[in-house]
């Protein structure tokens, strides 16, 4: 009995150990996503009122920061502020307190300058999480709109509806109705009924009725009054409205609404409801004075018609119901890995009514100023991905109902170190005696560069241009340009190119650049060129070889026919891009495009980077991937298939300041260092290594213990069988004499004399070993 209990306890400990390991793995894998715990809301305050906004994260960040978007109308709580706008301010650090996972911003609303949206930023190394904004506006109630007094005489049994027009107010004012000094309660208490409804009136309901507006901050008595007379015997009368009912209602998903439509007459009219081009919703109920629709969905919007009828006439009224729904975002991912230099497209499904306004944030700030990123509605395009794009990518969607967001963790895998030689595929002959099963995995697609086009730059330099058509396969890390010297152009013999050697340029050409100049060539020689693309799997693909190109020597007195087009203006776009404009004089030759050469102004030499602009009529171009706050020397050449023009005069341009560091006024304490995107990626890689290591160790431990149990069971069975047999000597005699016993590395070789001795302590040792393993797993 005790032995069985021990075995059950051991199994329980095993299950606990395995569950603990799995729990830790899940925590390491999914537990590090940061998000905002607080629920931002819209607040309406009086001038001079103080409040605090609390931003709490699920994980303590390195530091907090607050942004403020001012509001044009300080009394409009429904106004939409474009979060992608540059019209924001960084709030000084002395205005908010930080306590581990929480930051509290103190706000004293002295005047209209403090109204607007407040957004919290939480920094986790290079990754930043931005919250949904809080909205703060000022309270105000304007003058009531002009409305005349109403007098009505109705027959007993009618339903009376009377409505006062509410003044414009922030927050929205509700109307209280009074009969003398007594407040009138609505028969539909759980609904926001804006009219006074008196059902089945009697003579006791006769009198004067008034109304008041209340927005929670102020109470204002309104001018109009209703003088009601209820009679028992009145003349016949067709249906009529005491005051025309409301024509339009705006509702939100899941709410309920009361559509007011009451008419009086003699005899009391009967009411019927219908819906244009549809049927009435099933979640409706027809009540005295109107129609109630509960738990509203998108199917409930439309035009409703109420019809009042008696023997003396018919009266109809149309009511439009507009449906609103808060935004929803579905990105089908919450994390993605991408190689540096790859193109990345992300599309999220954004729904909401009215159509939400979409903004994309990368690490707490809008992507609009990033020249490598284009955000169009619910789509975002990276051309290409750089290291600085690592971190937290957020998509915000907001309409009059609500603002929501989704986060996508972007991890950028840096390019591997450059190589001087083009890796060539290794071909091996298959061995028939080791036949492997066919590989059913689809090979990675590697799109090769196009056949290069060559243009003469000067007597010793050519420009090599290429493209990569429809690259939907592996990302390209860099290009390598190779060239082969065929021989002198005036050589009359047939060239033998088999012995020629391909020369490789030392420079790795970035994947976003599709041109490269080869220098130091011999004039009046013939060359061939080709381009190799090195992909993210470190494999390569070679372009077709170019046609033979004759590098002609231009005579000293021969004028270059291509026009020199001077750069007229350099416009700073952002911290990584400038736009250049140029003009060309009149010319009589064909032009294929322009070469733009640029170099940092502080760098000596002629190691210019080059961009190719296709098109004869092009007169402007954006140069991307520049360094922030850096001056550049820029010059330009026109070219065609034969040669390029002389360089234009140098023009200087400068990139702008970084959009993140420029507006920041918060001082960072020394112990809160900011990690780079590369460090962040390295930490994630180490995390995966730890996870894999834990899994492997667990598998080894489990396998070892299973083998020990099997071995132990086998030994027990063997020991039992041995005890049941008659006692015999435990010696196995070999055919070889004991003197001829040989050893190898201390082990007795097969066929020699072996002595088997049972070990009575073996079972105890096994128990101790297993006990040690279980104790370690429990801890």
Automatic annotation (TrEMBL):
Membrane-spanning intervals of the chain: 687-710
Domain Ig-like: from-to ranges: 34-137, 146-223, 239-322, 327-364
Region (Disordered) location: 427-451
Gene3D superfamilies: Immunoglobulins (2.60.40.10)
SMART domains: FN3, IG, IGc2
Compartments where found: Cell membrane; Membrane
Biological process per Gene Ontology, one example term: nervous system development
Source domain of life: Eukaryota
Principal location: membrane
GO cellular component: plasma membrane
CDD domains: FN3 (cd00063)
Positions of the Fibronectin type-III domain: 448-554, 563-658
Bilayer topology: Single-pass type I membrane protein
Keyword terms of this UniProt record: Cell membrane, Disulfide bond, Glycoprotein, Heparin-binding, Immunoglobulin domain, Membrane, Proteoglycan, Repeat, Signal, Transmembrane, Transmembrane helix
Family: Belongs to the immunoglobulin superfamily. IHOG family.
Function summary: Mediates response to the active Hedgehog (Hh) protein signal in embryos, functioning upstream or at the level of patched (ptc).
Name recorded for this polypeptide: Interference hedgehog
Species: Sitophilus oryzae
Lineage: Eukaryota, Metazoa, Ecdysozoa, Arthropoda, Hexapoda
